[in-house]
Amino acid sequence: MKTVKVNIVTPDGPVYDADIEMVSVRAESGDLGILPGHIPTVAPLKIGVVRLKKDGQTELAAVSGGFLEVRPDQVTILAQSAETAEGIDKERALAAKKRAEDRLNKRSDDTDIRRAELALQRAVNRLDVAGN
Ligand code: ATP
């Protein structure tokens, strides 16, 4: 089975590094599936789930936007924050979700709303990856 090296990197350091059969991401332009040998490309990402297929199994990671860089033998995901399913603290994500929802219900000014919406998306994304 052909594989490609996938790295997920954040300002805090590397979060993931493995040889992968297929990786799929949520790019700003839509969902992208990357196989080994994919043409070089760069794409901005949404807050979303990264699916990493390895030995016939799919691992998940949560990323808070960032960039995808594809080279023929290497895929790099650069994100402000990223966690694998095991790395997610569910209680913290639930608390962040509640905080964001409370802020959105109060609705003070526009910048707060956008910020709360993004915090809510990050929290929901983490809960999706952590599973129930
Ligand atoms: P919170 O309000 O709980 O900090 P946040 O969405 O504002 O959530 P980020 O700014 O995206 O947090 O991330 C800050 C750091 O905390 C990153 O290193 C990120 O990986 C980590 N992090 C945030 N939430 C969680 C979580 N639920 N489980 C594990 N790590 C988390």
Automatic annotation (TrEMBL):
Membrane-related topology note: Peripheral membrane protein
NCBIfam families, A to Z: ATP_synt_epsi, PRK00571.1-3, PRK13446.1
Family according to the record: Belongs to the ATPase epsilon chain family.
Protein's name according to its UniProt entry: ATP synthase epsilon chain
Biological classification of the source: Bacteria, Bacillati, Bacillota, Bacilli, Bacillales
Record-annotated ATP synthase epsilon subunit C-terminal domain positions: 87-131
GO molecular function: ATP binding; proton-transporting ATP synthase activity, rotational mechanism
Signal peptide range in chain numbering: none
Alphabetically ordered keywords of this record: ATP synthesis, Cell membrane, CF(1), Hydrogen ion transport, Ion transport, Membrane, Transport
Cellular component, GO, one term: proton-transporting ATP synthase complex
Lineage: superkingdom: Bacteria
Assembly notes: F-type ATPases have 2 components, CF(1) - the catalytic core - and CF(0) - the membrane proton channel. CF(1) has five subunits: alpha(3), beta(3), gamma(1), delta(1), epsilon(1). CF(0) has three main subunits: a, b and c.
Subcellular location: Cell membrane
Functional description taken from the UniProt entry: Produces ATP from ADP in the presence of a proton gradient across the membrane.
Main location: membrane
Domain ATP synthase F1 complex delta/epsilon subunit N-terminal: 5-82
Gene this protein is translated from: atpC
